């Protein structure tokens, strides 16, 4: 096995070593979520949530996709997916908190309002 790239790995671990980024990733490793869902989950102002999403997106860990008026984020990095399973446990359906919050915020996104 090749020698691990310790510098690269520690920079990737630093991206995960953040409570709100872990919270975001725990939600979107299950399913793509729109920004309004993540704002409700973090209970933080929109600019803060956007900034954390930008950090993860710039690192290539997550990707955004537009659906109508809404932007959804999903986890695209398979290596990070494996790490998250080691840290947070295996996936067991959707985040219960998220299911409850979506009902509370009356979100207008297409996922919450299937036609
Ligand atoms: Zn929604």
Textual characterization of the structure:
By secondary structure, the protein is of the alpha+beta class. It has a single domain (7-104), classed as Winged helix-like DNA-binding domain superfamily/Winged helix DNA-binding domain (Arc Repressor Mutant, subunit A). The chain is 54% helix and 12% strand. The protein has 6 helices and 3 strands. The protein has helices at 6-16, 19-28, 35-42, 46-58, 78-88, 96-104; strands at residues 33-34, 62-67, 70-75. The chain has a 3-stranded antiparallel β-sheet with strand order 1-3-2. Helix 3 (35-42) packs across helix 6 (96-104). The longest helix is centred in the middle third of the chain and has 13 residues, at 46-58. The radius of gyration is 15 Å and the shape is elongated. The protein starts with 5 loop residues before the first helix and ends in an 11-residue tail after the last helix. The model has no long low-confidence stretch (mean pLDDT 93). The chain binds zinc ion (ZN). Residues 34, 36-37, 102, 107, 109, 111-112 line the site of zinc ion.
Question: What order do the strands of the largest sheet run in, or round the barrel if closed?
Answer: 1-3-2
Order of helices and strands: HHEHHEEHH
Bound molecules: zinc ion
Q: What percent of the residues sit in helical stretches (DSSP H or I)? A: 40-55%
Mean pLDDT: 93
Give the key terms.
alpha+beta, 12% strand, binds zinc ion, 54% helix, Arc Repressor Mutant, subunit A, 6 helices, 3 strands, 115 residues
């Amino acid at each position: 096995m090749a020698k691990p790239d310790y510098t690269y790995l520690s920079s990737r671990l630093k991206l995960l070593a953040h409570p709100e980024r872990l919270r975001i990733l725990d939600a979107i490793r299950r399913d793509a979520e729109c920004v309004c869902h993540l704002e409700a989950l973090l209970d933080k102002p929109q600019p803060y949530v956007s900034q954390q999403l930008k950090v993860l997106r710039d690192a290539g860990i997550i990707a955004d996709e537009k659906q109508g008026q809404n932007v959804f984020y999903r986890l695209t990095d398979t290596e990070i997916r494996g790490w998250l399973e080691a840290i947070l446990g295996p996936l067991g359906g959707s985040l219960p908190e998220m299911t409850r919050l979506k009902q509370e915020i009356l979100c207008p996104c297409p996922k919450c309002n299937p036609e």
